[in-house]
Amino acid sequence: MKREQLFSLVIIGVIFISLSLFKIYKVTRSVYYTKDESSIFWTEGAFQYRYARMVAMNRKIPIIDKKVEFPEGYPVKKLHPSLMEVTAGYLYRFMPIKCPFHIFLVFLMGFYSSISVIAVYLISSFLWENRMIGVFSSLLYSLTLSASMSVLNIGYQLQDFALPFIFLHIFFYLKAESVKDNRIFSLKGSGYSALSGAFLFISLASWHLTQFYYVVFLVYIMFRLLYDKNYSIGHFIVVSFFLFLAGFTIPILNPGIFFLSIPMLFTYCLIFTGISPYKGKWKLVGSFILVFGAIFLLKKAGIYVQSGFNIIFRRGILPLIVEKIKGLGTRPETADKLLWETLVLWVHPLNNPTIKWTIKSFGVLFPAGIFSSTLLLINVIKKRSSKLFILPIFFGFVFLFSYLLFERIDVFLVIFLAILSGYFAKKWKMRGTIFILLLMIPNLLTLKNYKPSPPGPNRNYLLQVLHFIKYRTDPDSPILANFAYGPTILNWTGRPIIFHPKFESFKMVSKIKSFEHLLFKTEKEFYQFCKKNSVRYFLLSGDMLLSRRYSSIRYRTHNFKTSRETVIYKFHFQPDELRRFTLIYSNPHYRIFSVRYPDIPVDEAAFEYYRIYDEGCIDLSQFGIQ
Amino acid sequence: MFRIVWAITIVIIVISLSLLPFTGRELEEKRDWITASERLFEEGVHLYETGLYHSALTKLDSSILIQPFYSPAYYYQGLIYTESGNPDSALTSFKRALTLDPESYLVRIEMAELLLDKKDKREAKRLLIEANRINPYRGEASKLLNNLKLNELKLKESK
Predict the structure, then answer these.
(1) What is the number of alpha carbons within 13 Å of residue A206 lying toward its C-beta?
(2) Whole-prediction pTM value?
(3) Hey, which residues 573-612 in chain A have their CB within 8 Å of chain B?
(4) Low-confidence residues of chain A: pLDDT under 50
(5) Integer Cα distance of A22 and A9 in angstroms
(6) Burial of A448 (0-12, 13-18, 19+ CB in 10 A)
């Protein structure tokens, strides 16, 4: 091994370990980190924690989890990519050192989320043909807050596990593209493509959003086929083979439906285009007509079925994208014309990024990355730079545009900005490197001084609610609560829940919509909903009636103005007027109501005064209540 | 060839990990939902109610160490310090309880009583007025405020 290679590997090792330990240190020193695991994770993180804990405790994950999405049950195997949880669970079982599982998870997250540092090094050093530029890009990446924010906020998120594998897939695909061989398939090229496909396989099994990344990848392949006559389709065919294999073996990809999904149809078109002996751009059009024509006929014959994911995309994500583009990212003044499905998604982390957020998340990497991407693009067009740069430049600009619509895309964008910023080091060598590193000092300070956001609402009041549920309700009592609270209630009280935050379950999403609208109807109608879903207790949070923020129920159900005749008003201000519900617990943020059933004894009513629930203490007109 | 073998190995591992956890016998969840911190809290409260303050404090301290976000633990800690004749520690505990639960009426009352003992009438009065605002239907704050006013009047008269 050469000295430079060894030196760069040692530095990368140091960066990787430093970043991992830094994340662990920040999390364990966070005000929100506790030795007690109760409500340490929130919403999706809490949901994922449930299954990780199951595997860690040597329990089987149920194919249909009856306690989630009660009474129908949640089809875990079919809808939830559980590779991250399973890996964590098995590692915990076989590690010799034992500590509470949530503490182990914090340490594990710190390390596996930092594997992206290695991916950045590999891609950057390969593209720039200089290992020290690879180190430079890795350093830029690790000093940027958006690369670590999710873990620092004690979020047990699928993206932190899946992203390093997506970037390793990109690295091996670039290696495959670099192999100069006139044949469609060469052993060396196929080897790299196979590894690329394998890493894409891992990410598809770990995270639903990988499918979105794959669509962007397909657009890139289409672009290359259209404008590069010598582009070899062989590498893509090998990667597609792994996708095909994924469609058969990964349960969440719904074998049968996946092969007829839009990304796969697009894949077939590109393969046909690539292997077609005909020349000209019209062969792509011909392939599209052939494939989509066949699907049209199948649909007419009643064979083509849409997956839940597609329905959510059609009714939620797509209108959201259209609205954001129409309004250039700003919300419309009134939400009346927007669907509930769009409004429920238009919250963090699917908000548009603000300038403040971008400065905080990216710092100087944002302008540096865009500047170098633009210069590189000009170089590629003028054929002064290698064609290998087309992929990162393409992804850089696509994810930049996507980031302007959704702040969540920052985790993709940061990698490409870091890689492409290697241009400074390549062009201006030591001066460029030192210049950018000096400008990264504010990034370093932002990272060092970052104060994590609280993972969830006020913990004290939430713990008090959980305490009450544990001590004063039956273990099998289903609880109706806002979907964000579901996993917390299930994880730390064991009670079945009706709602959870995984919107891949479209039937549940429809139920959430009904529930939220019924809060502004009569008590009878709301009671019918509870009865139909065998709800035993209803958890009311104070913001259900009083909040009108864009993330609130009132905003997305178009109840900016509401009346005193609604059941939610009675729950909040007049619980003694309810005929079918009994108030059994109150604290300043929450109330619990038991649902009255003919064959179940009525729970003892408990009324405790808090001014938030006193009509006399609040100017109702300020809250749009007439 | 070596790379292809690695790729196939990765795929086999991922398929196994994706399918294995759903196999085997389903065991009923027998998890104890009561956490260690809750158990210690309940034991601490019980010991306090039976008058064993030192043991109660040990339990509550341990509970807080594990779960520092639960305001009732600080409240009871404050009560124990009050009973044990340690008003400064009691005030610290009550302040922490109030930070976590700003709407707490009882914590304000306890703090006001301690401050009155320490002759800090101004701060006690402020807490009592706040407590009255938070819950005008309970009488403790009003009673203490009335007593304070009476004492002030008596003092003026004596002067």
Answers:
(1) 25
(2) 0.91
(3) 588, 609-612
(4) 308
(5) 20
(6) exposed
